[in-house]
Amino acid sequence: MKKYLVTLVPVLMLSFQPDSQTARAPKGSNAGVQLSSGGEDLKPTVSQEKVSQVVSKLLTTYHYRKVRLNDSLSSVVWDNYLKEIDNNKSYLLASDVSSLEKYRTQIDEALVNGDLTPAYDLFNIYRKRFQERLEYVQETLQKPFNFSVDETFNTDRQKATWPKSVEEQNEIWRKLLKNQALELKLSGKKDSAVYAMLRERYKNQERALGRFRSEDVFQIYLNSFTEALDPHTNYLSPRSADRFNQEMSQSLEGIGAMLREDGEYIKIVEVLPGGPAFKSKLLNKEDRIVGVAQGDNGQIVSIVGYQVDDAVKLIKGPKGTVVRLQIQPATALAGAPAKEIRLVREKVKLEEQRAKKEVIEVSENNRTFKIGVVNIPIFYRDFEAARRRDADMASTTSDVKKLIDELKAQKVDGIVIDLRYNGGGSLVEAINLTGLFIPKGPVVQVRESTGETEVYNDPDPSVSYDGPLAVLVNRFSASASEIFAAAIQDYKRGVIVGEQTFGKGTVQQLLDLSQWLPREPEKVGQVKMTVQKFYRINGSSTQHKGVVPDIELPSALTAEEYGESSQPSALPWDQIASTRYEASRGLDEKTVNRLRDKYEQRLKSDPELKQLSQELAEFKKAKQNTMVSLQETKRRKEREEAEKKRAAMNKVTQTGDDEAESDSTTTPSTTTAAPKKKKDLYLNETGRILIDLIAFQSRNQ
C-alpha cells in the first residue's frame, strides 16, 4: 500500500497546516442554487453515498491508526457531528437530540452501507430550529435592552446542556442578544446602530444557511468521522478541494492569512510568513475577525455570521490598498473589547519568508555580549529549482549557512535559532539544517503504520557552526521545527528554550477519490489521511508531547487549549527503539541543570521577568472565567480589567513597535523617524541563558 499510495499521490503534508480546520469550513461558496432556510429538506446524492463507502473503507484499512468501525467509534462520530452542527447548544432542543439518539450506535453500519440518513435528519432539524431562532431574534430586537439590570451571561456554552423547552431557549437567546448589543454599545455605537447591526448580522446568517448545499452537509458529517481518527485526517468536498489546491499553489493578494469558519465567527488558521499580517505582528493564529473596513475611512462591516468565502472577498483586495480589521484576539478575556488593526494588502513574497539575521547586545555581569539571531519563519525549499539544480535556489539551509558565515565574521559570542511560530515545511530542509550544527548522523525516524521504520540521515560530515547555540521555540513551533529542535536537543548540541512545542508528529497524504470512483460523472473530492509518524533519534515520538524545552519560559498558553494535546483524537505519544548516534559533550545534564538554576534565580529577582511571570499567571486564571456582566457599569469595569491583564501578552509577542500597534487604526505618520523597537523579553532571556552557557563551557575547557 505504501508504494501504491506514493505512486498515485506524491503529495505529503508535513507542515503545521490548517488540517481539520480548513476542511471543516464547508460553508464557503456563493455558487450553486439558492436555498431558503425554510425550504425543502436537503438530501444526499447517490455520488455522496458511494464516497461514504469508499472513505470508510480507505480509512479503516490504510490510516496510521488501525481502527474498527464499531459502536464505540460510532458514538464518537455522532458526538462530533452534534458539536459541529450546534457547538454552543443554542439551536437544538433536548427533545431534538433525544429523538435522534437512535443513530448513535448506527453510524458505523451507515457509513459502510452509504446510508446518510443520520446526517441529513439532524441537519434539517437544525435548519428548522435556526429559522425559529431568527424569528425570535427579529422580534426581540424591536425593543431596547435594559442595561441597568444586574445579571450575568456565560460566554461559553460548550459544557452546557441543550435547553429542555422553548422558554428556556428564549432566555438563553435573550441574554446572548443582550450581550452582543452591550458589546456594540460599549464600542461606541449609537443605540439605533446597535440594533440595526444585530438585525443585519442574523440576516447574514440566514442568507449563509440559505446557500447551504448537500455537499456542505456531507463534508461536515464525513469530517465528524475522519476527525474521530485524528485531527489531521479530513475529507474535502470538491469545492473545498479546489480551494485547498489553489491555496497550496498560488500567491494571492491580501493580508497573508488562512481563514476558517468557527461557529458564527471567522477565525485565523494560519498567518503566512512574508504576508502583511505576519510582518505587522498584530494578527495571530486563533484570533477572530469580527469586522472589516475598506481604506482608512471606510465603515466597519460586521462579518459575524459570514461564510468564509464572503469574508475573504472583503479582506482580499488589490496590492497597496488598506484594509482595517476588528479583531477578537485568541488571548482576549471574556467581555474584552475588539481591537482594530490596519494592514496594507500585498502579495506574500518568497523573499519575505526567507531566514533573516540580526545581532542583539545582551549585558550580563558588567559585560556586553553580541548574540547572533537567525529567525526562520518556515522551512522552505524551491523543489522545482532543486530539480533543475539551480545554484541560487531558495533553501532554508543554504540561506542560514550564509547568515551564519556573516555572523561569525561579525564575531558574535553565540547564536540563537528563533523558530517561534514556525509551523514547519520541508522535511529535507529540517534534516539539512540540523547538519549545519552536527557531524553526519541520523536526524529523524519515520514509521509506517505497518511498523516499518526508516532513519533519515544528514550525510555531510562538515559543520558550519560549532559554537554556543540556543534554539528558541513556542507553542506554535510545529512539525519540521520540532524535528530540528529535537535533534539539536538529542545531540546535546544546543540548549532549547521557550515553550513546549505544538506536538504534530504525523505526516498526511492527499488522495483523490476519483481514482476509486473512476466512472462517477461528478467530482467526488479528496481525503487527507495520516499515514506516517515521526520519532526522534532517541526513539521518542514528537507527536502529542512535542519538544519540551530544557528551560521553559513563562507562558500564557495551556496544553488544554492549544497544540496537538488539545485535540481529543490526537494520536498518542509513544516510543520506539533508539537509533545509534553520538551526542556532543558540550552540554551534559549537569550543565543544563546549572543553566536552569541560573534562570530560576533571575525569575525570582529580575523585575521584568518576575512581573511577566505574575501577570501571565493572573491572565491564565482570569481566562478560566467565562461569565460577564450584562449591567453596563459593571461590564465597563470588567473590560478595563481584561485589557490590563491582556497587556501582559503583548510583552511576549515577537518584536514590533509600540507606536505602530497603538496607531494601527490610523494613517501612518509622515515622519521619517524610526519607530522604537519593543523589547523582546523572550529573546533577551534566551540571550542571557546562552551567555550562561558560554561561561560554563569556558570554565570547563
UniProtKB/TrEMBL annotation:
**A Pfam family:** DUF3340
- Region: Disordered; residue ranges are 21-48, 627-681
Q: Which domain of life is it from?
A: Bacteria
**Record keywords:** Hydrolase, Protease, Serine protease
Q: List, for all copies, the residue spans of the domain called PDZ.
A: 245-322
Hydrolase in keyword set = yes
Q: Where is the composition biased (Low complexity)?
A: 663-674
Q: Where is the composition biased (Basic and acidic residues)?
A: 632-646
Q: Does the keyword Hydrolase apply?
A: yes
Matching SMART domains: PDZ, TSPc
Cited InterPro entries: ClpP/crotonase-like_dom_sf (IPR029045), PDZ (IPR001478), PDZ_sf (IPR036034), Peptidase_S41A (IPR004447), Tail-specific_protease (IPR005151), Tail_Prtase_C (IPR020992), TSP_N (IPR040573)
> Which family does the record assign?
Belongs to the peptidase S41A family.
Q: What protein name applies here?
A: Carboxy terminal-processing peptidase
Originating species: Nibrella saemangeumensis
